[in-house]
């Protein structure tokens, strides 16, 4: 009953969803607090480590299926570039990388963003709190994973959908844009609805929506053969 009560209180934090800071406490204040004694902490820790080990084995065995790594979470837990502790790992890894990037002010310090860019990610999620990093994004021709409902509902951007930075980046020929949800369970908006919102608030017609959807093909964590397959099955 305590677990159920804790989870109920946790999800109550989501309504209304005025600030992003209301989301991460679901983990730090509730979910991470579910193990309350030494045996449960020991069991949870062993389970997580076993999962990491199994993931590593699977990644080696099925390299054609495990195609990339996603670095995300409450980045404010390691502010001002302290995430550099992970740098040796990402320097060694031979898989493509996507990271949550400049998601909000607490995780958008120049030191942190410089560290993330030093890992040479191919894709960046959110990309809200940026400054000089815009130049690097354009120079590298990176793909931005943009999230309309998430950013607007969580108060991560100001001015509603019409003022979302999606419009700025869509007009930039040097980067690719890929719409996402992040996530359906929390914000109640599937991917089709995200495209509907893009069409409604940025005046995109059917052809432009199809062109937008195809942009993500060039940034997938896959080879040319898979990209060509997707080009053939998606709209022209």
Question: Would you mind describing this structure in some detail?
Answer:
With 236 residues, this protein is of the alpha/beta class. The chain has one domain (67-233): Metal-dependent hydrolases (TIM Barrel, Alpha-Beta Barrel), CATH 3.20.20.140. 47% of the residues lie in helices and 8% in strands. It has helices spanning 2-12, 25-30, 38-61, 87-92, 110-118, 133-140, 148-153, 166-170, 184-187, 191-202, 206-215, 224-233, and strands at residues 69-71, 97-101, 123-126, 143-146, 176-179. It has a five-stranded parallel sheet. Helix 4 (87-92) links the parallel strand 1 and strand 2. The longest helix has 24 residues, at 38-61. The termini are far apart. It comes from Emericellopsis cladophorae. InterPro entries: A_deaminase_dom (IPR001365), Ado/ade_deaminase (IPR006330), Metal_Hydrolase (IPR032466).
Give a quick precis of the structure.
The protein contains twelve helices and five strands.
Main traits of this protein?
TIM Barrel; 236 residues; 5 strands; globular
Instruction: Just give the CATH class.
Output: Alpha Beta
CATH topology group = TIM Barrel
Order of SSEs, N→C? HHHEHEHEHEHHEHHHH
Distance linking N and C termini = 54 Å
**CA gyration radius, whole angstroms:** 19 Å
Task: Determine the fraction of residues in helical runs and give it as a percent range.
Answer: 40-55%
Give the overall pLDDT as a whole number. 83
Q: Which spans have pLDDT < 50 for at least 5 consecutive residues?
A: 1-18
Number of domains: 1
Strand content: 5-15%
CATH architecture: Alpha-Beta Barrel
Query: What is the spatial order of strands in the main beta sheet?
Result: 1-2-3-4-5
């Amino acid at each position: 009953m305590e677990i159920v009560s804790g989870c109920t209180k946790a999800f109550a934090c989501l309504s209304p969803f005025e600030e992003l800071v209301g989301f991460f406490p679901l983990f730090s204040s509730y979910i991470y607090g579910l193990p309350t004694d030494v045996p449960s902490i020991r069991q949870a820790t062993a389970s997580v480590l076993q999962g990491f080990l199994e993931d590593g084995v699977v990644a080696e065995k099925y390299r054609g299926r495990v195609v990339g790594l996603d670095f995300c979470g409450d980045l404010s837990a390691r502010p001002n570039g302290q995430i550099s502790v992970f740098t040796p790992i990402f320097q060694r890894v031979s898989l493509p990388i996507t990271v949550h990037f400049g998601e909000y002010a607490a995780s958008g310090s120049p030191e942190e963003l410089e560290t993330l860019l030093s890992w040479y990610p191919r894709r960046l999620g959110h990309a809200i709190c940026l400054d000089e990093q815009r130049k690097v994004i354009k120079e590298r021709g990176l793909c931005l994973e943009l999230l309309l409902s998430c950013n607007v509902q969580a108060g991560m951007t100001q001015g509603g959908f019409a003022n979302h930075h999606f419009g700025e980046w869509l007009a930039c020929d040097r980067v690719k844009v890929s719409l996402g949800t992040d996530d359906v369970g929390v914000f109640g908006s599937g991917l089709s609805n995200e495209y509907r919102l893009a069409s409604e608030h940025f005046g995109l017609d059917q052809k432009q929506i199809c062109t937008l959807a195809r942009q993500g093909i060039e940034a997938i964590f896959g080879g040319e053969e898979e990209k060509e397959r997707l080009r053939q099955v998606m709209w022209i």
